[in-house]
Automatic annotation (TrEMBL):
Descriptive protein name: DNA-binding domain-containing protein, AraC-type
The entry's keywords: DNA-binding, Transcription, Transcription regulation
Stretches the record annotates as Disordered: 239-262
Bias (Basic and acidic residues): 244-254
PROSITE patterns in the record: HTH_ARAC_FAMILY_2 (PS01124)
Presence of keyword Coiled coil: no
Length: 262
């Protein structure tokens, strides 16, 4: 089960089952487990183990691909071995059960891989309601993908719609129309949105100066960068950095959280 927007949910073996106390993936013991009291109708000796992982995401600035997914995605795990998604889940479970040197970094890497495999499965099973107008369609469109790749590789370049259209081998008008249809935003609106998300990540996860960050995301002055950042995210860059410093999770838990419920 994949919850792109963190929807509240419950797991049960039948619809009228008594629910046990809720738990969060971050509330785990040293071995990564959370013991949940069994319900009164749970047979003695029976045990259900669930593997849970979570990312810390700011849902106000969610990626278009995640925004287009339904709130709850159910993916059926194949029974045969050799399926990458099943193998990744099993490997994650084994690492949690028998941790070793570097486990924290290993689990973070496994979660990244698992996340990509889940998105691939969503694509293969056509979970998106209309894949003719979606992020998936955008990256499958040769022209739009070429423009996106060029921009993502060099977000600090002074991009214009004309230059992005040239990268896509399309006319300016055709490119702007196609981009808006697939991405859901005009090209330069997307450029600004992506740059500010990148800037926010640099503000919260690095010690780079405001000047360096401004140049990294395509602004020649700190003033122009600060104005754009405030307009896009509703807060000044310095305030965003200070807020993040107060709320930051420990390094081992900042990127992702994972736990086992038994």
């Amino acid at each position: 089960m994949f919850l792109p927007s963190g929807a509240e949910h419950a797991l049960a073996d039948r619809i009228d089952a008594e629910l046990a106390a809720a738990c969060e993936p971050g509330q785990v013991t040293d071995n990564g487990a959370v013991e949940v009291p069994a319900s009164s109708d749970h047979a003695p000796g029976e045990k259900t183990v669930t593997l849970c992982g979570a990312y810390e995401l700011d849902l106000r600035f969610i990626h278009p691909l995640l925004a287009q997914l339904p709130p709850v995605v159910i993916l059926q795990a194949p029974f045969d071995r050799g399926d990458p998604l099943r193998d990744a889940v099993e490997l994650l479970g084994m690492e949690l059960d028998r941790p070793g040197p570097g486990t924290d970094h290993f689990i973070a890497a496994l979660l990244d891989m698992l996340f990509i495999l889940i998105l691939r499965a969503c694509h293969d099973e056509r979970v998106l309601p209309d894949q003719t107008r979606s992020w998936v369609a955008a990256i499958q469109d040769t022209g739009i993908r070429s423009a996106l790749d060029a921009f993502h590789d060099a977000p600090g370049h002074p991009w214009t719609v004309t230059e992005l259209a040239r990268r896509s081998a399309m006319s300016r008008t055709a490119f702007a129309r196609r981009f808006h249809e697939l991405i859901g935003k005009p090209p330069m609106t997307y450029v600004t949105w992506w740059r500010m998300n990148l800037a926010n990540a640099l503000l919260t996860d690095t010690d780079q100066s405001m000047h360096a960050i401004a140049q990294r995301v395509g602004y020649s002055s700190e003033y122009a960068f600060a104005h754009a950042f405030r307009r896009e995210r509703g807060i000044a860059p310095g305030a965003a950095r200070r807020t993040s410093a107060r709320d930051r999770l420990p390094d081992s838990a900042r990127r992702s959280r994972v736990g086992v419920t038994a």
